[in-house]
Every structure is written in structure tokens, then in C-alpha cells.
Amino acid sequence: xxxxxxxxxxxxxxxxxxxxxxxxxxxxxxxxxxxxxxxxxxxxxxxxxxxxxxxxxxxxxxxxxxxxxxxxxxxxxxxxxxxxxxxxxxxxxxxxxxxxxxxxxxxxxxxxxxxxxxxxxxxxxxxxxxxxxxxxxxxxxxxxxxxxxxxxxxxxxxxxxxxxxxxxxxxxxxxxxxxxxxxxxxxxxxxxxxxxxxxxxxxxxxxxxxxxxxxxxxxxxxxxxxxxxxxxxxxxxxxxxxxxxxxxxxxxxxxxxxxxxxxxxxxxxxxxxxxxxxxxxxxxxxxxxxxxxxxxxxxxxxxxxxxxxxxxxxxxxxxxxxxxxxxxxxxxxxxxxxxxxxxxxxxxxxxxxxxxxxxxxxxxxxxxxxxxxxxxxxxxxxxxx
Length: 385
Ligand SMILES: *Cc1c(COP(=O)(O)O)cnc(C)c1O
Ligand code: SF4
Prior knowledge:
By secondary structure, the protein is of the alpha/beta class. Strand 8, helix 14 and strand 9 (336-341) form a beta-alpha-beta unit. It has 15 helices and 13 strands. The chain is globular, with a radius of gyration of 22 Å. It has 3 domains: 6-99, no CATH class; 116-349, Aldolase class I (TIM Barrel, Alpha-Beta Barrel); 353-385, no CATH class. The relative contact order is 0.10. The chain has a 10-stranded mixed sheet with strand order 1-2-3-4-5-6-7-8-9-10. Strands 11-12-13 form a 3-stranded antiparallel sheet, with no helix packed on it. The chain has helices at 9-20, 26-29, 32-37, 43-49, 54-61, 73-76, 87-92, 160-169, 188-199, 213-216, 223-230, 249-260, 279-291, 315-323, 380-383; strands at 116-118, 121-125, 128-132, 175-179, 206-211, 235-240, 264-270, 295-300, 336-341, 346-349, 355-358, 362-366, 372-376. Helix content is 31%, strand content 17%. The chain binds pyridoxal-5'-phosphate and iron/sulfur cluster. Pyridoxal-5'-phosphate binds next to strand 2 and strand 3.
């Protein structure tokens, strides 16, 4: 009886705590380190709180080498214990399909290894870099594009000196995206050290942090963390958000703290089959993000990592879904749909085709309602007459 469908979400989490952690009071439950220590990571632990399906059992039975399994008690309490198709559940619980390989899949689909210019530094664009600050996350998304790196299989710590030296030596770099893994898994003090050192580089203008923490472990966003982040402005947080059910009151508090500290909040969403690939779900997610002062930024086509076939949505369907957003909801609620090009071509925007023709008088445009309009834009030759 700890489902979230009864509308009493606080009660749902509260009920989960009382039932599975009766010795733990609300303050302990809200301690992010307690949550990290009590993550559920195998069939025995997960089977205690969820009725596992055959497919989930098969996925969990395959251990060793793969992306780890970890679910925070907080996030487990958001899942429907009796429905293995629950969207939140599908993002974190492996299923047997993960072992299936399809054409075009690769361990490093974006060829990040080729663009690794220093240990833990990926540079694909002249003016900005990604720093992999840590290899661990609070929870592990089964579709993670860096599944080859995260989960502690690659030790990311200890490379900071070289990464910082690289940024300092390249004056063209204005924007540093601190990612991983999830940088908010670092202690506040350690993250402060990293941000302070990056801030000391005169040509670095924008700092960005990529994280999923405010949604999978909102208690990580403590007042102390936010006070620290605020000292490193201009600072943006890119929030990895998948489903409107993640926007709980607890997540709302975390996001409000970040927004109140003047941190620019943007969201990145991976389009996932059976999880968020409907117009209603995407609209609810994007509107929900805006209500929390988060601007939807990217909708990603799922990267073709090994065993991702059951997550990937056809690009044509993705474009159709975008057509259900553009013009139908606030422009602020519309992310850009991008495909991070396999082989390392960067993020390439795709979307409904709107420039549908050209004639002697101008270009022909298709509106969100499918009507055709002309903008007077005569061809070059006629313009110069
Ligand atoms: C996504 C990404 C960035 C940031 O791209 P923006 O479009 O500026 O958000 C930078 N470097 C790499 C390697 C990336 O994958
Ligand atoms: S939080 Fe990000 S880095 Fe971590 S597993 Fe999920 S997608 Fe990968």
C-alpha cells in the first residue's frame, strides 16, 4: 500500500519508510548519505520492496562487469511495486533485454575516447569541454551513454590536476561542463575545491553541472550545498529528468533552493520507449519542469549503447512527438530534439520539417496546425533587381 497513485505522495514515501525502515526517523530518511548507504542493488533487496518480474529477475541475475544496479530508497518509494512496466522502474531495473545486441550499437557510440584530450576531459567543441569529475552516480540509468565508464569501473578521481591544467592552458575554453558520473555524489567540500580551481581560470566564463540528483536523491540539495554553489556564479545546472512522476514535493524543494540561489536550471530528457514516448507524458514533464523554474533544454534521442534496443524510439516518432509540443505548449516548455551523432559529430537538431517549399515570391512554411503560409522572401536573383 505504498503506491503513489492514491494522490497522497507524502504518505506513500512515509508509508514506505515505516514499512521497510521502521527504525529510521524522518530526519535520517532525509539524510542523503543514509539514502546512498541504503541503496537497493540486487534481487534480494529489490525483491523485498517490489514484486519482481521474470525479466527483471533475469536482468538482476546477470552480475559482474555490467553497469551496476542502484536504487535509492527515496526513488524506490516512487515506483509502483506491482507493475514492472512502471516508467521509473524501467529506467533503473535491468531486464534480460539488456543482453541483446543490435546493429549499430557500440560501447562508446559518441566516440568520446577520440575526443578525450586529457584524463577525464572530453572536447568536441572549440569553446567548451566536459570534465568527468567522478565515476559514480546515486542511481544507474540502464540507458546511460557513459555506461562504459560509470559505476566506479574507471577511477575518475586523481585526474583533476591534469584536467584543470588542460582548461587553464586553453584560453578558448569559456564553458566547463562538470559531469560524470554525477558530480553531486562528491562531498560538498570536494566539489567546492574543483569549482574554486576552475573559477580561478580567468577565461572560464560559465560553469555547468550535469546531475540527476535533485530527482533521484533530492535530499542531496542541502542548504550548505546551495550556499557553496552560489559562490561560483555564473553557474548552471543541467538536470537529467525523465518523467513527470519525478517532480515530487521533495524534488520541488530541491529545485526551488537551486533557483532561489540564482542558478540557471535547464533539463535534459532522454526519449525512452514505454517511459516517456507519448505527447501527454512529454507535455506533463515539460510543463512540470517549467513550474519548477527549470527550462527544458534538450530531448535526446537515446544513444545506441549495447543492449539499448528496448529503450530506443524511432526518430520519425520522436519528430511526431515534437510536433505535439511545438506551438501547442509554451515555447519555454519546448526542448530541442537532438541526436548526438554516433562517431562524435556532436548534437544535431532534428524536428518537424517546417520549411516545406519555395516559389518566386517566397518560402512556404507549415504551421503547427499543418496549414501552409508564405513568407515573402524572393530568391537572390529577384531580390537584387
Ligand atoms: C553536450 C556536450 C557539450 C555541451 O553542449 P551544449 O550544446 O553547449 O549544451 C559539450 N561537450 C560535449 C562533449 C558534449 O557532449
Ligand atoms: S545519472 Fe547520468 S551518468 Fe549516471 S547513470 Fe544516469 S545517465 Fe549515466
